[in-house]
Design a protein that fits this description.
Helix content is 60%, strand content 10%. It has helices at residues 17-25, 31-43, 47-50, 55-64, 66-70, 98-107, 111-116, 118-125, 143-151, 155-201, and strands spanning 79-82, 85-89, 126-132, 135-138.
């Protein structure tokens, strides 16, 4: 049985990363079990089959995934190529729409939520483009299709980006809370106004 494994974070997808992350932080799982489970995630080979391998073969596979335990990621990039698109990263938080701003504040409340919502968070900051004549133009893709593409993005590219924005959002959390509270006050005022108007019209 030939088992193919990535040799860096660039071979690990956004979809695979939360599963790996949960295993790495679980203190109740022994080292050898962690290694086998991670190999299983990256190779799509069931744990039961991996456990039947000769010890020398298993050691070779474990050496191949040593990069996972180092958590050493490349530097953040401004753009990258994936599935025929140029993906641009928007690092300017001021260019987020109010809707995206609120979405991020809900998706990135803590470390666990960031891991479970990594694809959705990425979708806010990373957009697909294609070159048209002498410039790049954003490609409007159906949301479901875009999410499927994002889930296959290499975590080696995305994790530094997500880490950057999570730190930014953490620093902005008090601002977000003030913003949401102000929006709630506006909504209550509008609701009260509509109630008064409805009473007048009755």
């Amino acid at each position: 049985m030939k088992i193919v494994l990535p040799n860096s974070w660039n071979g690990v997808t956004i979809d695979q990363f939360p599963l790996i992350y949960d295993i790495l932080k679980d203190k109740d799982i022994q080292s050898i079990d962690k290694e086998i489970r991670i190999i299983s995630i990256l190779s799509n080979v069931p744990v039961s089959e991996l456990e039947r391998l000769q010890i020398d073969s298993l050691k070779e596979l474990i050496n191949s995934v040593n990069f996972v335990f180092k958590m050493d990621f490349p530097k953040a990039v401004e753009k990258f190529t994936h599935e025929g698109y140029e993906w641009f990263v928007n690092y300017d938080i001021t260019k987020l729409s109010a809707g995206d701003f609120i979405s991020i504040s809900k998706l990135a409340t803590d470390e666990d939520s960031v891991m479970s919502n990594l694809a959705e968070i990425t979708a806010v900051f990373v957009k697909p483009y294609k070159r048209k004549w002498f410039k790049y133009e954003e490609v409007r893709i159906d949301y479901h299709e875009r999410m499927q593409l994002i889930k296959t993005l290499p975590i080696g590219v995305i994790y530094p980006v997500a880490l950057f924005f999570c730190k930014v959002m953490e620093a902005l959390h008090p601002v977000i809370q003030d913003y949401l509270e102000n929006e709630l006050i506006k909504a209550n005022k509008m609701a009260n106004k509509l109630i008064k108007q409805s009473k007048i019209n009755i």
